[in-house]
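Students often ask why we bother predicting the structure of a whole assembly rather than each chain alone. The short answer is interfaces. A chain on its own may look different once its partners are present, and contacts between molecules only exist in the joint model. In this exercise we take two input lines together and write out one structure for the complete complex. Read the inputs first and try to guess which parts will touch.
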Amino acid sequence: MTRITNNRLKWLIPIIWVVLFLLDGVISVTFQGWLFNYPWSVSIQAFLIGIVMTTYRFPEQRWLLWTALVIGLFYDSFYSGIIGYYTFLMPAAVLFVRWVTNYLPNSALFQATVYILVLIGLEFSLYILNGFFGASTDFALFITYNLGPTVAVNTVLFAALYYPYSKLLGKISV
Amino acid sequence: MPKFFSNKKLIILLITIVAMIGLIAVSINVKDRRNTPPVIQQIGNDAAGFASQVVAAPINSLHTGFTAMVNLVNTYQDNEQLKKQLDELDQVKETNATLKRENKDLKQQLKLNSTLTNYKKITAAVITRSPASWQNQVVINKGQVNGIVKNMPVMTGSGLLGRIVEVNKTNSKVELISTSNKNTNSFAIEVKTASGTYVNGIISGYNADKKELIISQLSSTDDIKKGNVVSTSGLGGLTPRGLYVGKVANIRKDNYGLTNSVYVKPAANINDFTVVTVINRSVEGN
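Now the answer. The structure tokens for the assembled complex follow.
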């Protein structure tokens, strides 16, 4: 990859990630009557889609780790005000995807599988950390009420975003 | 095949996990103690708030158009019902105005400038909502510069919605009353019984299944009947007296069969709002 492309990526990827991170909250508030209505509670993870797809495509770009850390810091500060959850879990997602690309080919189906795996890992880590810091819920309730619906809705979101996002990555990396 | 967890990596992983838990613990502590977050965090949050409004603009216009279409279908039926209520409302308004005037005069005679029932309203729009399902937190577009202070109560439509938990310069975070966070402050409420007496208690939780608030620590539940009105009592914090919470839906024994818990149907729709009102109590408190 040429130096010009690298520089362009360094500018554009953070901007795209910031838009996706803000989209998480905007989608949540627009559809809150539906997303947070019993018997389910869905957390939208569009930012994670961006992280998984970008890292899958450019595993050799080492700076993605630090970008994920900085935007994760903003994510924590803006949405929850408690710093530490996404700040560390998003770089961990980058590392995991980078490692996994050594063994899996690059295709839509594999990317979707990796995304679902990372999503489940993220929700589990958040659940365990929350249990540790006070906002605990029953484990069976967490599986049926949070995790299941979250995976279902985000898989649909992934399917909707996959084609435009990979087109976008293709455009900016030529 | 390279090993994923070599010795050096394992140590780095351990240190990172310790740093993560430490950072979360410290920031929860800071959030609970301070009235506003550190300046650098405020600048970040304000910038994110502005950017979020830019990203939201196209989606909001789509959403508004769609809602307008749905509303149009329901308008006729609504109109019929509202017309009936309107006649009664005029009478209520007139009575209310007279009582307010009388109340003001009486307060003046007693040389009371403001009591627990006096408050000012600050209207704000909801910018975004925390995607985390365990959090039940929204961000509104008014902050320190608009006179918002941590712990002020927030209403939507007719009922209590939540309280301010973090204040930045131009936006602030609201924690909804449906939160499952055990570390948050509770609202002090009073139930008005049929005989006209008030019973004090606190909002201690939310039942997502039935969409009802759980009231506990009531001094006595003997006189409380289904349909009794529940409002804030103005005791503690920055909440004035008389903010409408909802109506009693049910009275049940708790899990151990020792005390009664009262279940309240909230007047506010906790999952459907775009505009909220922040209540600024006239009487100073802590």
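Check your guess against this: The helical segments of chain B are 7-33, 39-109.
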